[in-house]
Amino acid sequence: MGSIFIKTWFLFIGLIVLIVITAIIMTRPKEDRSIPLKSTGMPITNNMIPIPAGAFMMGSDDGGPNEKPVRRVFLDAYEINQFEITQFQYGEFVKVTRHRPALSRYVKNIEQFNDRNQPAVYISWLDAEAFCGWIGARLPTEAEWEKADQGNIPASSSGNFTGGEDGSAYTAFVGSFKMDRSSYGIYDMAGNAQEWVSDWYDELYYKTAPNQNPRGPSTGDMKVLRGGSWNDSHISGRVTARMKMFPDYRDVTVGFRCAKTTR
């Protein structure tokens, strides 16, 4: 009787140990198979790319209600940054103006986002507007952003978004994905970081916007974010996808680029 009890006791202890080991394995963080970032040394040149005056088809009949209908819209000529504003560029702005730094000490895995050639993230709309004003530029309008992204069709390996085959666990160096390049030569509009634009958000704006140089509603509560990020699916990286957030919203998925009116 005693030997049966001892055997049963050891079986019970073994079962408990097995359950504990299984729980540890199941809760262990997924292995990071991403390609480690290596500093590129010199900061990348982030030129303004000219977008010629002309009409384009804005919106999508296949997207969400806030992307409809497809409309022919004319825009005057403008310029837009080839890449998202980088940590180096934003850092120079902070040094000169004493503006709030891009990354906070409360950001998890902060070391994964702070190479000089990664996009500046954890940026509010107010931060982005201040930076663009500092360099004599402005945030692009929704329409300008969408036209600059024309011809960009994201695939599983063509940009930095979650579930893709890009090899990046977080943001990548700007311009890393040659397939995430619009027909105008603008990079990273499908992924890497979502981007602030100047417009206040209006669910029905694509139905009511003027057909020439639309600039968004005059007032509102939330600002528009365009493009996908490293933490979004490729659905958010569609050319016409529209998101919204409060102007003081900050996240490691959010950055920006600037634009200028051609004179």
Name the overall outline: globular
Spatial gap, N to C terminus: 97 Å
Placed side by side, the strands forming the largest sheet appear as 7-6-5-8
What is the SS-derived class? alpha+beta
> What is the number of helical segments per DSSP (H or I, 4+ residues)?
5
Largest sheet: 4 strands, mixed
The CATH topology: paralog of FGE (formylglycine-generating enzyme)
Rounded to an integer in angstroms, the radius of gyration calculated over CA atoms is: 23 Å
Strand tally is 9
Taken together, the total number of domains comes to 1
In what range is the share of β-strand residues?
5-15%
* Overall mean pLDDT: 78
List keywords for this structure.
alpha+beta, paralog of FGE (formylglycine-generating enzyme), globular, 263 residues, three-stranded antiparallel sheet
Q: Could you characterize what this model shows?
A:
- The chain has 263 residues and is an alpha+beta fold.
- It has one domain: paralog of FGE (formylglycine-generating enzyme) (Alpha-Beta Complex), CATH 3.90.1580.
- The protein contains 5 helices and 9 strands; from the N terminus they run αββββαααβαββββ.
- Strands 7-6-5-8 form a 4-stranded mixed β-sheet. It has a 3-stranded antiparallel β-sheet with strand order 1-4-9, with helices on one face.
- It is globular.
- The N and C termini lie far apart (97 Å).
- The model is unreliable at 17-37 and 152-167 (pLDDT under 50).
